[in-house]
UniProtKB/TrEMBL annotation:
InterPro entries: Endoribo_LPSP/chorism_mut-like, RutC-like_sf. Residues 6-143 form the Endoribonuclease L-PSP/chorismate mutase-like domain. This is Enamine deaminase RidA (YjgF/YER057c/UK114 family). CDD domains: YjgF_YER057c_UK114_like_1. It holds the Pfam family YjgF_endoribonc. PANTHER family: ENDORIBONUCLEASE L-PSP_CHORISMATE MUTASE-LIKE DOMAIN-CONTAINING PROTEIN (PTHR43760:SF1), ENDORIBONUCLEASE-RELATED (PTHR43760). Gene3D superfamilies: RutC-like (3.30.1330.40).
Amino acid sequence: MGGKIEARLIDLGIDLPETRSPAANYVPARRLGTQLYISGQVPQQDGTDKFTGKLGSTYSVEEGQAAARLCGINILAQLKQALGGDLDRVVGVVRLGGFVNAEPDFTDHPKVINGASDLMVEVFGEAGRHARAAIGCYSLPRNVPVEVDAIFEVS
């Protein structure tokens, strides 16, 4: 199904991946009224973790941003599936929650999560502007450096 957002993804050179089934007892997306919640996505590509390690030792801020952007791409893939393929049903991005696997002295968590935030604005324009949390943590599943979840308003 092609639409305005699909055309924008093509312009940005983004090919959304196939979604994967959850690895535990949860669902990838849940709708409540006009809000659609997308479970946390990690920087996985072609079925493998593209990034593993910590910000502040293994990865720079820029590399962390790339990992967060990949999380955002995976969020968009889950969103598309949950909306039956029609991303034009997105009214707006409500909130992103970003978790950064970082060394204790790392303090640039917001800059890392900008990788996902910037993507949402690139894809949805003003409707992509959102509230956000960027939280540092000691570890994440499979030692990935970033995990991002999202809430969207949809029609």
